[in-house]
Amino acid sequence: MSSKKRILIVVMDGLGDRGCEELGGLTPLQATETPNLDWFTKHGTAGTCDTVAPGVRPGSDTSHLSILGYDPLREYTGRGPFEAAGIGLIGRPGDVAFRCNFSTCDDSLRITDRRAGRVDKPDTEELLSALDGMEIDGAEALVRAGTEHRAALILRGEGLDARVTDADPHEEGPILQSRGRVPEAERTARILNEFVRRSYGAMRDHPVNRRRIAEGKPPANVLVPRGAGEFPHIRPFPEIHGMSAACVAGVGMIKGICGVCGLDVLDLPPECTGGAGSDFSAKMRAAMAALERYDFVLMNCKAPDVAGHDRDPRLKCDVISRLDEMAGVLREGFPPDLVVAFTADHSTPCSLGDHSGDPVPIAIYTPGNVMDDASVFSESGCAHGRIGRIAGRQIVPICMDLADRVEKFGA
Predict the structure, then answer these.
(1) If we measure between CA atoms, which residue out of 324, 231, 384 comes closest to residue 15?
(2) Which pLDDT score, from 0 to 100, does residue 202 have?
(3) What's the CATH architecture for 6-76+234-402?
(4) Where are the domains of the chain?
(5) How far apart are CA 194 and CA 320, in angstroms?
(6) Residue 22: is its pLDDT beyond 80?
(7) Residue 164: which pLDDT band, with cuts at 50, 70 and 90?
(8) Distance separating alpha carbons of residues 376 and 37, to the nearest angstrom
(9) pLDDT per residue over 191-207, tens digit each?
């Protein structure tokens, strides 16, 4: 039997926070009892982590790239490619990808509902059948439906350039004319603008929208793109590290990042969603089952981020309690040949309602590691650990060393 250990990285999305007035100045982590996360902290080694760099407010996309060991400042090309990959639209190098909303607009292309009444499948899939494969000035448009009102668009063809502005105004009002940020991108902007116009022409009188109007619902009559990015040339994670690798996540973008990086994206039970009500313990059991087949598993739990964006510290405390129960599932059945890291991709302070550049806690445990002075899993508690303050890109190398998977450097 190989002496090499397996690795599990548990990313609790948006877990970090700042002091909350409703919690007497404590963060939700400080205000919540977490006996299982504390056990891993006390018996492991801990520290804090700037997933991208100190003071940088990371997105979930850039931070997960970093946690997987990539340099997001070099590899990140925009959110569009990862959103597209997350719903199964895998591009090629040179493709330009966009996030899209199904929206409601009038004949002057003025948006009156950015989410078209939160239209969802199967309506969106039927509507997109009228757009998929459209050709515009030598470029092919590939589209796929996401969850609710979301979709992804890929433009494929020679000479495309992702340096274009959004057509999405990000609020109700006139749809914007995309522009090239550089002269080389002007053709791509023209193609994008023509796609938006044609999407309205194809969906305006579609039978799905005639039915929706008859039912008193807003029509989903235009597709509005934003977040352009070129599909990146990323060397696969398993090739870099010599490990089979999988992703356990319910959020499309996280699945997309992992898929682009070469991780196998696993199907999950229906109770394992990306929302606040997700069954974290079931997700942990799915991750543990995956470790029977893979050397490396990245697991994402989105719910703390949802609570932070909702500015709801009490909800975040409840989520943290359930995350601790999840950690208890792993603690109870912990394999002796496993290295686990508990961390977050970024902080989402409830007082801010958005991501911040605050460092996040990290605790790493495997039997026989060196214990340190940290004993509480929190922003301040983990700061007592011997790991110190690290960058997200250092997590995989540290875990690989503890898993006895690194070659000696030097004689």
Answers:
(1) 324
(2) 96
(3) 3-Layer(aba) Sandwich (3.40)
(4) 6-76+234-402, 83-230
(5) 46
(6) yes
(7) very high
(8) 8
(9) 999 999 999 999 999 99
